[in-house]
Input
Amino acid sequence: MRKTIKKVLAAATASVMVLSMAACGNNSAGSGGAAPAAGGGETQAAAAAPAGAGESSLKGQNVRVVIGSTSTSGDSYMTADLVTRYLSAEMGFNGKVDAIGNAAALDEIKNGKGDGKLIMMFHDMTFLSQLFGSVDEMYSLENMTVGPRIGQNPGACFGATAEDNFATLADVTKYLEEHPGEPLSFNIESGATSHLAFVAYYLYVKETIGDDAAGGIKAIVGGTTAEKLQRLWDRNADIIYGDTSAFEQYTQEGVEDQLKMTMFGSCGEVNGIEIDSMAESGVTFNGEPFDFAKDFCMYFPQDMDANVLAEYEAAMKKVTENPDFQADMAKLYYNALSADEVGVDASKEFIYNKREMCKELIEKAPSLDELAN
Amino acid sequence: MVAHLLIATLGVVAGIVFGAIPGMTATMAVAVFLPMTYAYDMDTALFLLLGLYVGGISGGLVPAILINIPGTPSSITTTFDGYPMSKRGEGERALKIGILASFIGGLISLLCLWLFTPLLSAAALKFSAVEKFLIILFALTVIAALSKGQMLRGIFAGFGGVLISLCGMFSVNNSYRMVPAFMKAKMQDGFQLLPVLIGLFAIAQIFEEAEEGMRFKIEKVDTSEGGKVTKFSLKDFKGQGVNLVRSSLIGTFMGVLPGVGGSAASILAYAQAKNFSKHPELLGTGSSEGLVASESSNNGLTGGALIPLLSLGIPGDSTTAVLISAFMLQGIQVGPLFITQNPHTWNIILIALLACNIIMFIVMFYPIKWISKIIYIPRQRLYPIIIMICVVGAYATKNGRMFDAWTLLAFGVIGYIFGKIKIPASCFLIGFILGKDLENYFIQAVSAASGSLAVFFTRPIGLFIWVLIIVSVAYAVWDDRKSKKKAA
Output
């Protein structure tokens, strides 16, 4: 009996260890998001990208890619996963994306070794979270190495119920102008890109139309895309902020009236979708047309090995010029960049400039506490 | 079709294994197997993923019943009656009751998915943040029912759980709450449910048994059948029809409500089983009634959570949120037009869900008598494996953070201390599970009403839920007083 128990336990332990390895490789998903991109997701070409085929000093080694989101169905994961697959093929390493969340990812980069085996791939929240004070100063860009940019998601936009007849952000501005002081609520997230887009629009209305019109703009803060949609459907929010890929299905013919939406005021030109961007609706900041696409970039630990960084730069330049990669990005409605744009120096300059613009915007804008009242 | 059934069987078995291992969940199972679907067509992918979903939800009952450790958060209430049954040598019976209840719960929810999707999704739309807050509050009333005889301690523990669940960054203003400055990076999202759950149940229990020398013995049986160990028979379900249907429907409806988790479903169903029971005093001591309520409701969730996903494009729970990715991989958009634009896929979902429930029943019900022998393995051999599984499960919770493993240990110690000072850990855990949602929906409701609390008393559905809350609490208080008088 004892021997049998020992055997059973040995087999159980072995299978548990196998399963444990599988679980450690799991990517848990967020629970709140609504359906993202139609026709999006990982493509067969990308999925089949053979890791280990390329050459670099990291060939055959494991590379951990952390992202600042805990969701495996959002744009952060989709972009990082796609780029990692192509880079794995190009540089010959085994890349794996871990969705560990913003603070944890920043902490990993701050404490990690700069040997190229740890990358953070994330969008502007990397520096916004520090600007908004949700993480400490020690996680600022100065304490990490900005690597190549990897892509852009211009798909964030505003949405309203179809019955409100807002086809563009200009229509919303017109409404505010014609109904001064009448409340119009915007459901956004604090400390996120939606926060910036919202305050940029608020400042634009305040400067160009006036205080009365801007006084009607009210913020409702927080919620997943699903929760924002439900607020919209309950008519507890007039305008919500989310992704074109999540909203598009509710704009189609045949959707019942309570759910039917319009979307407008995207953060840039979205491939394959007809939508007016914020800039096209006339929104400006500091006299310049305001576009605020989410820019995804690689971030490495501060003491990053310059040779390995150069290898990443060269590989990313090849990846971004690969027509298959460009097609895969387009299927997700994301923009691939040019080889010049993904260069390390150009990327660093771009990210630092963007941070400065965001800093100025945050300083000029009233707090959400004010706008929520 | 044979290939589909084989892949569904693989999914169900793998799901059961994930569900049965503390720290691993149906959501993890679906996420781990998702990349396999790159190579599959949509039909095959659905058979695999729904198999994992059904198996993952069902597998949680095995450790809950046999070793008092819920395999998944939604099987917490299964431990209340399942483990006492195991302790008196009725592990196999408890497992079979749980499996059959899970099967029936799954079928009832499938029926709801098939026949009432438009109706239920319309109903879900009527549930705003106000109603969701009240539903969570209603689920919390189970604390009063569970802490009979020590209500003050139970309520204290429940509030403690709610409080601890709120540690971390408050997303509305990005401020940290109850987090020391040096822990900010680790605790942005607060404590994770799985390490807290496993710590309070598994690790604390292991500490307790270690203190007593691991001398676990099957208790002498004291059942109404005259001291004999009762074997499973269909008679166990006699008089349980209403409980079974009510609990399955509660599970289904909680699944329909996006953002209200599966754990809340089994907690609410258990509370109602206790409220409506002719022998409420037996629930928690090894009653099949509690077991049926818990298991039928958590499997009732499966069909329910698919309803908002397929009709509104909003996932009903964390597992269906991962399922969205599977649809995306195949270029299918789930949302209000899904059923009309994809009738074939819709039919496949119904068939796959039916097949997976039947397969789950077959692969669990018949071999369970051997699995139930786990309880006879000496604790000093079993527990080291369980500790290893728990640590790995905790570590994997957020894709590899040592902080979660430390959380597991810390809550193991807290659970051990709770046992010593007689604070009911289950009440703490229920508060912890429901705390974040309670706050979230409260803030959503109040902010939409410009800060007015009157919003909780102006909507007809809300008023109805208030009545249920008041009745539930009043009954629990009355029952508590009655039992105290009896004891005196």
